[in-house]
Amino acid sequence: MVLAATNRPLELDETLLRRLPEAFEIGMPDRKEKAEILKVALKRERDIFELCKKATYFPIREILEEEGNGRPCRVPRPLSQLDLEKGLDWIRRKFLLRRRRRKLQQVSIVG
């Protein structure tokens, strides 16, 4: 069985549509379903907390850089989607570095 999903059904290629003859529309989740999705996401609450914490540092760093360049302090700008994406990228790199260190430690112990 092959299952495919898209949020852009009108952009699907005709060849793909021929190979997947059945189509089911699944609507947007209601308030209760959204709460359930959030509960699942929050099972990894620590990761979400770390991401938000990391994202809040970016506007603060901008203020510190401005002050370092002799510009007066201003109010931090609001967080943006880009801040969250940069925070997520930082967390991913940190995770990859940890994984590499563990592998190196395993190699040095074995080797």
TrEMBL record:
The keyword ATP-binding belongs to this UniProt entry's keyword annotation: yes
Top-level taxonomic group: Eukaryota
Database matches in InterPro entries: Mito_OM_Translocase_MSP1 (IPR051701), P-loop_NTPase (IPR027417)
Transmembrane segments: none
Keywords in alphabetical order: ATP-binding, Nucleotide-binding
Protein name per UniProt: ATPase AAA-type core domain-containing protein
